[in-house]
Amino acid sequence: MIVTELLLTAAAIATAAGQASPAAQPAPTQAEEGQGAPVAGAATPADEGADIIVTGTRVEGRSRLDSASPVDVLSGASLQRQGTTELATALSSIAPSIDFPRPAANDGTDAIRPATLRGLSPDQTLVLVNGIRGHTSALLNTNGTVGRGSAAVDLNTIPTVALDRIEVLRDGASAQYGSDAIAGVVNLRLRQARAGGGAQVTYGFYDTDVQTANDRRHVTGENAVTASVWQGLGFGDDGYLTVSGEYTNRQPTNRADVDTRVSPRRVTGRYGDPAVEQYTGFVNAGTSLTDNLSIYAFGGYQDRDSRGAAFPRIPTAAALPALTRAGLADGFLPIINTKSKDINSAVGIRGDLAGFDIDLSLSYGRNTIDFRTLDSANYAYGAATPRNFYDGALSYDQYVAGLDVTRKFDVFQSLNVAFGIEGRREGYKITAGEQASYDNPPAGTVTGIPAGTALALVPPGAQGFGGFAPRNATERSRRNGSIYLDLEAQVTDKLLFGIAGRAEDYSDFGTTATGKVSARYDFADWIALRGTASTGFRAPSLQQQYFTQVASVVTNGVPVLTGTVPSTSDIGRALGGRPLEPEKSTNLSVGTVIRAGGFDLTVDAYRIHIRDQIGLSENIGASFSPQVAGLLTPFNVSAARFFVNGLASTTKGIDVVAHYRLRTAAAGAFDLTVAGNINDVKVTRVPTSTATLNPAPTLFARSRILTLEDGTPQEKVTGTIDWSLDKLGALARVTYYGNVNQPGTTPAADVFTGRHAITDLELRYAAAKGAQIGLGVSNLFDVYPDRTIPANNSTGVLGFPYYSPFGFNGRYVYARVGVNW
What pLDDT does 47 receive? Predict the structure, then answer.
């Protein structure tokens, strides 16, 4: 805690602080040299083979092919040459190790979707913005989706127009960056420009044949439009201010099957992407203060309004009395409305002090999500039910202060020494909604319904998404401090060796330490061998520790509580819950780098073993045994679930990336890329008891275990051809996805996505300054995952598995028109 207090004191003194360490700083760009930034829409693809990286190394000037760890460098232009304007979707289409499923009918997870790296949990990948730790979403995924139980960074809060490039470190890096970097690190580097600018509008729609298990139809429409603009401004000798803005309006998609419960059969649900209206703005700035000192800052804000659908409420025999009593005998479709407001900001000073490169930084991030249930009903209110409900809010914020120091010494051929300290304060809050969203009406307020009658008839709360009650409200925070040392030595012309260590102290669970060693040996100019070994950790998130959603249900006319509780709550402790401990990992990797002329190939094998992994248990119900019933009776609780440590898993895989760049005077420039990931996750330990229950009820059902093992594709291969000749260009991409299992309660109910290849095509005209035109088709051949089987689709809503790594929307046609200046 002494380290934490020192850091917070330093942050208060240095109010101008703020970006990443020198190791995490962008290398000098054209903006810093007083020139305009590269034009993102130019026809000629960028040569990314010799890109200087700042992720995974603290040595200035190292390229991705010279590093000891595998790093992908993805240009902003490559992210924008797609039909989608969502960052996470664009990233997953060109980086085989990253997957971005598109869950539907899963409450807030429909609107804030998590991405995965190497098949691991979304919260086991660290996300940086300009080298600074990004903040997670306030949302905790508690439904049956990929990433269940995680609170991850929402990549879609950063618009692609604001980015210069992305660096993806595919290696454990907790010793270098701290918590969460078990699978790797994604570093989002903002555009820096003193001049130039551009504006564009992307418009697209679906033209697809939908074939579900019980229906076949053609869909044309479901439009999406995105308008973006950026401008670089210069001031002083080297000052830059880059401003970016984006607006998105996307209509919902619907791939629901026909509902077999109604006659005549028809589509009653809405199953697909939510409707989205979104505004995002970013600024990135910097300038010199003296010959040896400069200041920099960035800030971003996003307002996102998403509207997804819950399952339809239809007049079945069981539901008709409640529907009729509410005056909604024909049924209704509840809409779950999430309003997310997101802030990213940082300010900092860096420069040279007595021969040391220093960077003092302070950042702040915040995410707030307000929930509303629209076009719904609270049956307990009868015909007096409201139709729209305010359900409450979740919020998460994070302050990070850090001091990073680097210096090169003439030891061996060179020795780079980096060290620093960091302090972080996190806060988490649940705010209750209005009474009608979670409870019965106040006694005597509903005409014709005596007090207590409503409660005895139906469970209270908004249908589709019940609100947070005052008993769920909470406000928590924690602090942590860390110190690190990172050494990287060029021992000889051929041998590179690195070692790093980090110690952290958390106010809630105590201390942890991690380490990493890395080495690279260049046998010749054209071939090198590299490898790393490291330990890592992920601190339990505040969301996992304190999220609470307990609702009343009616059992035999008596209201009892059920839901998710903290492991350290009275209910959690009674069932054997304990304070959460950090997840621990051991990472091993070995690879080779081959290059000759315009060709380069990297092959990296890895093994990641995670222990003390955190998972959300199944509901532990009073009906399991008299012992459990006795433990729950004093709390008037019928069932509860909470997070527990104890899972263990081993992930093995291989990443292969091959590039070939051919430049010809007559035929133009060709960039050919084939990249693939083979990944296998095995759960090796599953807890079967708690501190008070031995044996306990099933803590993790087969569907939870299989989601960890088979919820992302074990094989993914992407092949891309990017051609350009002067102002003309074309891109063709084929992505192969291996089979994914969306597990059910029994093997017969499992749903498999199948093995599929998705083809994307784009033609473009792009002048360095002037018109920018792109015409393209995503999913050219209108490929869908395998259909959902009737055994796992009793409502008829789930037309396709929402575990599908490429979604289930079909062919998308788009046009992009803009201008650069």
Answer: 53
Contacting residues for 794 by C-beta, under 8 A, at least 6 apart: none
Q: SS3 for 375-410, per residue?
A: CCCCHHHHHHCCCCEEEEEEEEEEEEEEEEEEEEEC
Q: What is the DSSP string of 216-249?
A: EEEEEEEEEEEEEEEEEEEETTTEEEEEEEEEEE
ω into 264 cis (within 30 of 0):
yes
- E strand or H helix at 79, and its extent? helix 76-80
Which is nearest to 341 in space by CA: 380, 379, 307, 300?
Answer: 300
Indicate the CATH number for domain 2-820.
2.40.170.20
Residue 537 contacts residue 514 (beta carbons within 8 Å): yes
pLDDT at 58 (0 to 100):
86
- Phi then psi for residue 631, to 5 deg, are -70, -35
Residue 115: phi, psi to the nearest 5? -100, 155
695 prior amide bond cis, ω within 30: yes
12: burial class by Cβ within 10 Å (0-12, 13-18, 19+)? exposed
Least confident of 76-90, 227-241, 802-816: 76-90
Q: How far apart are CA 362 and CA 796, in angstroms?
A: 51
Q: What is the largest CA-CA distance in the chain?
A: 88
- Candidates 664, 670, 637, 659; CA nearest to 565 is 637
Q: What is the pLDDT of residues 253-279, one digit of tens each?
A: 999 999 988 888 899 999 999 999 999
Domain ranges in the chain are 2-820
What is the Cα–Cα distance from 350 to 358, expressed in whole angstroms? Answer: 5
> How many CA atoms does the CB half-sphere of 401 hold within 13 Å?
20
The three-state DSSP-derived secondary structure of 12-73 is: HHCCCCCCCCHHHCCCCCCCCCCCCCCCCCCCCCCCCCCCECCCCCCCCCCEHHHCCCCEEE
All residues at 6 or more sequence positions from 747 whose CB lies less than 8 Å from its CB, including other chains: none
Task: Give the HSE-up count for residue 605: Cα atoms under 13 Å, Cβ half-sphere.
Answer: 3
Is the separation of the CB atoms in 808 and 105 below 8 Å?
no
Q: For 710-754, what is the HEC assignment?
A: HCCCCEEEEEEEEEEECCEEEEEEEEEECCCEECCCCHHHCEECC
Distance CA 25, CA 285 (A): 13
Of all helices (H) and strands (E), which one includes residue 418?
A: strand 414-432
Model confidence, pTM = 0.91
CA distance 112 to 128: 18
Helix (H, G, I), strand (E, B) or coil at 668: strand
Tokens at residue 26, please?
Answer: 């962008």
DSSP state of 213: S
Could you give the C-alpha distances from 54 to 147, 187, 188, 281, 376, in angstroms and in order?
28, 9, 11, 25, 50
| Residue 396 near residue 367 (C-beta atoms within 8 A) | yes
Dump pLDDT digits (tens) for 751-782: 999 999 999 999 999 998 999 999 999 999 99
In whole angstroms, give the CA distance from residue 241 to residue 295: 12
Task: Give CA separation, 722 vs 432, 433, 467, 760, in Å.
Answer: 51, 51, 49, 12
Tell which wins on pLDDT, 536 or 450: 536
3-state secondary structure 186-198: EEEEECCCCCCEE
**Chain Cα centroid distance, residue 6:** 32
Residue-wise pLDDT tens digits, 629-641: 999 999 988 899 9
Q: Quick one: DSSP state of residue 648?
A: E
Identify residue 695 by its one-letter amino acid code. P
pLDDT tens by residue, 275-324:
999 999 999 999 999 999 999 999 999 999 999 999 999 988 888 888 88
Cα separation, 760 vs 81, in Å, equals 10
